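Researcher: Structure for this, please.
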Amino acid sequence: MRVTRRQFYPTPTKRERIAFTKTFTEDEFHRLYQSIRPETMDQRWYCVLDDGWLYIVRNWTDRCFFQLRIHTEPPHQIVEAWTLWGGERHRGADVTGESEQLNQVNQAIDEILTAEGR
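Model: Predicted structure, token format:
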């Protein structure tokens, strides 16, 4: 099922900028653009691409944890990145340091890109 920004919880007002950069191939960008919500809880993350912003959303809670500004024309590069954790712990994920946040957003994107049906 294709997801829009209105279908997940609003992004928190408390956010922190992170030094995350990544460039996506045309195929990877197309898979991110699909914005498909997982049908099972086996997949932890999904994304929504809206107006140049890529929202990384936790499937179990429908809460957005990362907000990434991405070029919609090639090269599809992340040019701005924010973490929306707000310093909170989330279901065993202690993401307080920037290196942990960078690792978590990388893992989330990898999971989204390798999910079946994309």
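Researcher: Any notable elements?
Model: The mean pLDDT is 82. Helices lie at 26-33, 98-114.
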